[in-house]
Request: fold
Amino acid sequence: MKRARLQEFEYKCIQEEPPWCTAACPLHLDGRGLCRAVGEGKFDEGRKIIERTLPLPGVLGRICDAPCRAVCKRREAGGSIELGGLERACLDEGPLRRRPLLIPKSGSAAAVAGCGISSLSAASDGAKKGYSVTVFCRPDNTALLTALSPAVTEEIAREELEWLEKQGVRFRPLAEMPPLQETDSEFSPLYVGLDDPEAVLLLADVKRNFDPVSLETAIPGVFAGGDAPSFIGRAADGRRGMKSVERYLQKASLHSSRETEGPFETRLYTSLKGVLPIPPLPLPEGGYSPSEAKEEARRCLLCECRECVKTCIYLEEYGAYPKAYAREIFNNLSVVSGTRSANRMINSCSLCGRCERICPNGFSMRELITEARGEMVAVNKMPPSAHDFPLEDMAFNTSSKAVLARHAPGAEKSGWAFFPGCRLTGSSPGHVRTLYDFLRERLDGGVALWMNCCGAPARWAAREDLFGGNLAALREEWAALGKPVIIAACTSCLEALAAEAPEMRTVSLWEILAGLDLPEGVRLPGEEMALHDPCTSAEMPGVQRAVRALAGKMGIKGEELPLSGHLTTCCGWGGLQICANPPLAEKIAAGRGGETSRDLLVYCAMCRDAFARTGKRTAHLLDFLFPPGESDVAAVPHVSFSDQRENRIGLVRELKRTLWKEEEIVAEPWESVRLVYPAGMEEKLEERRILASVVQRLILHAEEGNRKIQKPDGTFLASLRPASVTYWAEYLPREDGTFEVKNAWSHRMAVAGAGEGGEP
Amino acid sequence: MKELTASYGKYREYLCTNCGCPLELRKTEITYLGSVFTLELPSCPSCGLTLIPEELALGKMYEVEQILEDK
Reply:
């Protein structure tokens, strides 16, 4: 990833933008931090923030006129935070640290004229820059400070001046100041504070059209400001003037990149959803007591965005927000030698796209993650364990055992092709057959059956090579079928085909079904259910409307989840999350299921399995449209990976035999290995992603070649390495010819003498 | 991994069914993503058939696989 690309991503996420108060403050005081500290009773933390940001903190913190109140987000919910009162409460609660400056002298000198808050702020900033600062002013140099407010006592003002003197700021009478025109004098450059009438007189003969950005007067190197009514504004002029002095000394531009020096508009977004209005605590004449300050500070919204994180368990899981993730991913991709610690994070996104639809700026994790995965694949740094299982599954689903493309029996052309997709075929093969019969009966023009994989797993794994190869094969099959309109049951198939092969016309099964009369025997759920839209339908409003229309026609009442329709989320299958990070996928599915106490109604086979896997009662819309034998369809457990594969093979064979009268395909020899499992073993194999067919092949290989190890208790251990994973099984042959599978495990490392290659 | 293999004594009672030999701890080469290790593993002294016990496959071996995948 190029740095410019990272910056594009970074710019879109506004979480790190300053809150309104900080952006509007001429000195950019961290009002949010101050409120957080005071709200927790940490007044010393509050003072640290004040001391870090404000010049003359003891004075300014007591008289701040808080221009932030005009923009405070809280003003829309009760009233702005009394930040000025909170600053003062911090200062009243204890002394400032007054640490001496540990800054080496720069060797440069700067002069300041006047002793108002503006001049002294400039002097303070000059000292912090390491300059030898001389302030020319009247002898009673605290007079203008104490005149600002009764809150600034002689003692407070004196303390500020003493600190400045300790930092090397010298005070000299105005009369000793050299003439302004002598720009190369030892007291140049100069800042003139216009809040000191005596200093103003110095500029009596100078034209009053000062440059608003640099505050430079008609005399080069002489800057002037501080005549604003706002105290904090005057101090900010002093700061701006001293920055100009710095640039002047460095012979740098007086104008460039100064847009955010003064108040500016923040790009931050903070939602007020669910925020109850609370009015401000009236600020007493003598200031807040500590407990009052705490109470007022707690009204602060601690403004931030995090809109996407609030609704995404994945984004929350890694403890940050998209901008930080973009940097982390950029660094991960830039690692030459060392640990790529963000790999798992990159592979755990479901690519559902909800964040980009929620973000006020449209930040897309999907885009970021897809690019990152693509780069990892390109440089051969994609961890093999992340996607091997689904890619192997895709290889199977596109093999001759699972693929079928036929015109309707007896037909030679097709206007339509029913494309059920891998998951529905695996999870609910009966529905595929029923649907195909139904569509043939109801649609004119001929309906072909096309069982294949759309390539979504390869696309999610950023394997362009595999996706492209598969798509080429799909195009050929489609052309051979006479380029029919594809009726896709799965929105992931629809999404992949529409994005990558728009010439292949597709329509959602749901849109077709919504336009047809209902089949006989439609069943109704016992109770109202909650409808979950699959994530890949989020940008398919037509499909979502069709599902609702169909359900309505059937008489099914569905509760809408708070975030549904275009804001729906993933069940954990998308983006191969379930393969790269199974615990997170389960957490996400459980989180979605937990949003309602009702049973879930879904129209995606992946969603159905993912929710059922977490124990959430979930039914597929097809379970009501074409009811199967079970009466409580929401209680049916998820279908294991092994069974899905069996189901696909079984369906292809059944359809070939019954519809197209094709001869029975010769079964593979390993299919004759009959397995039995003790309680819990099938679940263990499912969790370890070990397919029954692999165990069958392993046992056949071991038994035929006598390549096995016998344990003292008589059970056998054997292994097989079909591709890049070595599988082990512990089994016992039984008298009835079956094999009891007692255990199974796998590893990816290749070991000499273990895991001989099986058939591919 | 050495501490782990020390507990492999029990596998000496396991037999290679083809050769009839009890397994012995033998130095065995393991490779993953270009890295090569040598480890003492229970193997048949005659034909070299090697056992990767469950606790190794799902324990230390898995950890090392994950580390190598992130390199």
Remarks:
- The radius of gyration of chain B is 13 Å.
- The helical segments of chain B are 2-6, 54-58, 60-69.
- The first helix of chain B runs from residue 2 to 6.
- The mean pLDDT of chain B is 90.
